Amino acid sequence: MRSGGRFRFLSALLVMLTACTASAEDDAVPGCDPQAGPSPALVLAAQSVPTAEFVPCVNHLQPGWTFQEFDARKGRTRFWLDSDRTGAAFLVVTLEATCDIGDAQEVPAGRDPRLPLASDHQGTRRFVDIVQVLPQEDSAGVGQYRGAWYFHFEGGCVTYRFAAEGRSLETLPEEVAQALGLFPRQELRRLTREELDIELP
Question: Is residue 62 domain-resident?
């Protein structure tokens, strides 16, 4: 990591440790690519919920999507995505130690080939709010995609909460599954130790 990147990384850690909250700018996106090294946002998310075996991360964003407002504080990390097609904050991603799944039903790994994320990581279970999650178009052809996905794993839970509105939402689940991921804490520990000489809990 370049010295400037290392300085921003350590500064972000200092904010997390002293104030237990951080809203980053340059390094706000918790990237999924291990080749890029441990981003400050990824480490802050892991620190916010030290029991969580996975941390939500971003593989890539679809055209027209914008990453917004990364916020990590003790017990929770949250960020959301805006879209020029499906609206502001059409997806809010939250990491917590536990989450209330309500009436959501479990979708076994591999059941839906469009949503491979859960099956990519052994030890995760995916639940979907099937009551509101399917797009329904009105007379003007505008659909709504509202509901939640929950990813349960040892020591934590990641929630994707949808409030999307627009046209042609049929591909949204697949796009989100490809855009986001879960970064294993074990791998993050290794990267921070080898590249930054920092021991992550």
Answer: yes
Task: Please spell the DSSP secondary structure of 93-153, one letter per residue.
Answer: EEEES----TT-EEE-TTSSTT--HHHHSTT-EEEE-TTT-S-EE-TTS-EEEEEEEEEEE
d(CA 40, CA 149): 26
The helix/strand count (H/E) of the chain reads as 5, 11
Distance CA 66, CA 103 (A): 30
pLDDT tens for the 201 residues of the chain, in order: 444 455 455 445 544 444 444 444 546 789 999 888 888 899 999 999 999 999 999 999 999 999 988 999 999 999 999 999 899 999 999 999 999 998 888 887 666 655 655 445 778 888 988 655 455 555 666 788 888 999 999 999 999 999 998 877 888 888 998 899 999 999 999 998 888 888 888
Element (H, E) at 76: strand 76-83
Domain assignment of residue 85, given as a range: 3-196
**Is 201 inside any structural domain?**
no
Taking the C-alpha atoms of residue 8 and residue 26, their distance in angstroms, rounded to an integer, is 9
